[in-house]
Design brief:
Blueprint: H1 3-19, H2 40-52, H3 55-69, H4 79-83, H5 85-100, H6 109-128, E1 134-139, H7 146-149, E2 156-162, H8 164-179, E3 190-195, H9 203-209, E4 218-222, H10 231-243, E5 250-257, H11 259-262, H12 276-283, E6 287-292, H13 309-314, E7 333-340, H14 344-353
Parallel strand pairs: 1-2, 1-4, 2-3, 4-5
Antiparallel strand pairs: 5-7, 6-7
Bound molecules: S-adenosylmethionine.
S-adenosylmethionine (SAM) is lined by residues 56-57, 59-60, 63, 140-144, 161-163, 166, 197-199, 223-225, 228.
């Protein structure tokens, strides 16, 4: 094949990837709002979310909207109800605009990939434990519905930690779904609300008071939370979890922003780490695996286009802060799994003392 033919084929491949293999969410032209969101009780709950919650709390509904509109890859029976009409409409409009512009990155795709990555890694972590008794702690649980959608949680006590308003409203929304006779089955063994602010010193005491047992194998899920904390607060949380590796088998699943992501103009984010794969071992975790959106274990067939932002970043060294092609900041989101366990003799002692 001549050079020109080669180039032409490359261009054709490029344009076919851009237009055909882009994984668009399967959304309707007109957004269909489920009937339950029109009921008086649910409308009132969402009105108070819109009027009374701050941006931090509202971020819980934004992520639920992502899962609702990427429903062809995430089956979340509560996502529409948790998101509410405003957040569904906002994201729907953005996706429609992306479609019109034939965008390389579709709004919500990061969220979809992140959700699927956490789902996969939670299951793998639970499978890795040699004991049936397990706990899963969702820090900044927001409108996470895993206790109603992941079967792998059927032997786990799930602790959802968030602000009191968020957890109370979530409970009321679930009650509305149940009383509307929507088929809703809890898939977790148990679900315990822990209404506390993880910036406060006593948050871990509150978790224990709610029934959390430090000696039981635990998966800690920190999805979409660390970067809302200050550096000191985030490090306190990470240190506390790392300490637990000395007591029991512990898995931490967390997403980290790098500095350019947290430093964009008008950013609401604070904590970042450019090298979480170095930070976490220094705190006491023994195994750390870092993935980036677009990596083989973090694309779930949703990021075919080689020219999209994530795939372009994968080709650059992680030290790069500015993209050499266009001068834009290299904003990365790291998906990180870290684990640790006490030395074997110590775990025997712990078992005996249980
Ligand atoms: C972006 S949402 C993520 C929710 C959920 N993890 C998910 O991925 O869908 C962040 C959540 O963290 C909660 N949050 C933020 N700061 C918190 C704090 N200091 N203590 C407890 N919860 C907090 C917010 O209320 C919100 O529900």
């Amino acid at each position: 094949m001549s050079k020109t033919e080669n180039k032409k084929q490359e261009e054709e491949e490029e344009s076919s990837t851009t237009t055909n293999t882009m994984a668009w969410p399967d959304i309707e032209e007109e957004l269909v709002i489920p009937e339950l969101l029109h009921s008086e009780g649910v409308k009132k709950l969402h009105m108070s979310i819109q009027n009374e919650w701050d941006y931090l709390q509202k971020s819980a509904c934004q992520t639920a909207a992502g899962r609702a509109l990427w429903k062809h890859v995430i089956h979340d029976p509560l996502a529409h109800l948790f998101a509410g009409e405003t957040h569904l409409r906002n994201l729907h409009t953005k996706i429609q605009r992306d479609r019109l512009n034939n965008a390389r990155e579709v709004s919500g795709v990061i969220l979809a990939v992140r959700t699927l990555w956490f789902d996969t890694r939670i299951q793998a972590a639970l499978d890795s434990f040699d004991n049936d008794a397990t706990q899963v702690v969702l820090l900044g649980a927001g409108m996470d519905a895993r206790s109603y959608r992941l079967n792998c949680l059927n032997k786990s006590d799930v602790f959802e930690v968030d602000f009191p308003d968020v957890l109370q409203t979530k409970t009321s929304l679930v009650q509305a779904a149940v009383s509307s006779r929507e088929e809703l089955k809890m898939t977790a063994k148990s679900l315990i609300d822990v209404a506390t602010d993880i910036r406060d010193k006593d948050w871990f005491e509150n978790l224990k008071k709610s029934g959390f047992v430090p000696e039981i194998n635990t998966v800690w899920v920190l999805e979409g939370i660390l970067y809302y904390l200050s550096h000191t607060e985030a490090m306190q949380v990470l240190n506390l979890i790392a300490e637990k590796c000395k007591v029991t088998s512990t898995v931490l699943l967390a997403d980290f922003m790098n500095k350019p992501s947290a430093s964009l103009p008008n950013s609401v984010f604070h904590f970042y780490s450019d090298w979480p794969d170095q930070l976490l071992p220094s705190l006491g975790f023994s195994h750390v695996k870092l993935s980036q959106i677009g990596d083989p274990d973090a694309n779930f067939g949703l990021l075919h286009n080689p020219l999209n932002l994530f795939n372009k970043l994968l080709r650059l060294p992680r030290t790069a802060q500015i993209h050499p092609d266009d001068g834009t900041p290299c904003c990365r989101l790291y998906l990180v799994e870290a684990s640790g366990s006490p030395p074997p003799d110590k775990s025997i002692t712990n078992n005996v003392s249980l």
